[in-house]
Amino acid sequence: MADFEPIVGRYITVDIAGEKHRLFVEEAGQGIPLLCLHTAGNDSRQFRHVMNDKELTDRFRVVAFDMPYHGRSTPPDKWWLKKPRLTTALYMQIIRAVWTALGLDRPIVMGCSMGGAIVLKVAADYQNEIRGIVGLESSAYAPGRYNEFLHHPAIHGGELCASYTYGLNAPTSPEQNRRENWWYYSQSGPGVYQGDVHFYSNDWDAREDIKTIDTTRCKVALLTGEFDYSCTPAMTEQVAASIKGSRYTMMKGMGHFPMIENYPDFRPYLIGALDHVAA
Amino acid sequence: MSEFPGASWLDRYAQRVNADAEMGVIGDWLSTTFTLTFGDARHALVVDKGKIVKIIASPRFDVRAPFGFRAPVEVWRKFLSPNPPPLYHDFFAMLMRVPEFVIEGDSLIAMQNARALHRMMNIMRETGAPNG
């Protein structure tokens, strides 16, 4: 008998900004919908430990998907005629399209890095339709990561993107897990990571939006790793200071990719955050 | 007397790079000369197919080094400490968040070798600054 994991993956086609997109979605568990958003240039495999955690999947329907261009999702038609460039508006449409297509009722939306950024906007715009957000490595404004070498014909994009992000892990996180994330980064399509960082580093600014979040309607839990230099603990502290009633925890000995780089140490933080948002 | 950042420390660093299993896998295309500047002390490392074959202290102007890394000794000490503080735990982190840590010269050549170079810098961290 094969030792199957409980994760089930399927493909759906959704309409995003007037274009059909074939996306890969995977999920496990039953209960409160927990929609998970991966980091820039990566894909839903980052959430495999969350989806394999029985204590969580007994309470939550954990859903993760690959963004267009990422992982097993297909780019839209005529992709070869435009640079992949994620924007705040497009990102919101993508999330909304998936959430609607899957019929997720008052989900908790959890994202990391660029996903941890956009969940702040999701909370601001949809605070009456969701239970709340879990922001991993969340910043309302995060300049500094974009550079031209991330998509350059004289540079191996996969190796640069993966090496560039490797140092975002905590040095104490298990080597095997850091290298797993390295591998996922190396598999991104040309220019996709740069297009995501363009959103994260150049387009993104939600410093005013987050002031409108009412945590009596939409709970907010924020978790940021001590060693994250992309979104530093100080940057998330600023977010928390702007959202009255939010819960912020700095994760000791953790970097920018908690759900994949060191799940055993991340787990207690995650459960605490989910308990807060699901209450 | 401090071993770091002197010749014996660099020799030990070179031995570790040259014996590293991962460099053996990824180093084939890294043939260049780059400089490491610890405060006022500048060294050129001649690398051939991922192996450090020569270390030149205080290189003169006829030593051609396309790129290099420069920082005050205090910054290098943090990077090389057994438990580096956040922002000093990785050379990409320092390039982004520690203004005193500078990449000099042609960064394109450096980033064409990002993986091997990153491994070399991590081996440097593992070598540490024992008398620091």
TrEMBL record, chain A:
A GO CC annotation given for this chain: membrane
InterPro entries in the cross-refs: AB_hydrolase_1, AB_hydrolase_fold, AB_hydrolase_sf
Keyword match Hydrolase: yes
GO molecular function: hydrolase activity
Sequence ranges assigned to domain AB hydrolase-1 in this UniProt record: 33-143
SUPFAM superfamilies linked to this entry: alpha/beta-Hydrolases (SSF53474)
Keywords, in A-Z order: Hydrolase
PANTHER family: AB HYDROLASE SUPERFAMILY PROTEIN YCLE (PTHR43798:SF31), MONOACYLGLYCEROL LIPASE (PTHR43798)
Official protein name in the record: Alpha/beta hydrolase
The species this protein was found in: Undibacter mobilis
Organism taxonomic ancestry: Bacteria, Pseudomonadati, Pseudomonadota, Alphaproteobacteria, Hyphomicrobiales
UniProtKB/TrEMBL annotation, chain B:
SUPFAM superfamilies recorded: SCP-like
Protein name per the record: SCP-2 sterol transfer family protein
Species this chain originates from: Undibacter mobilis
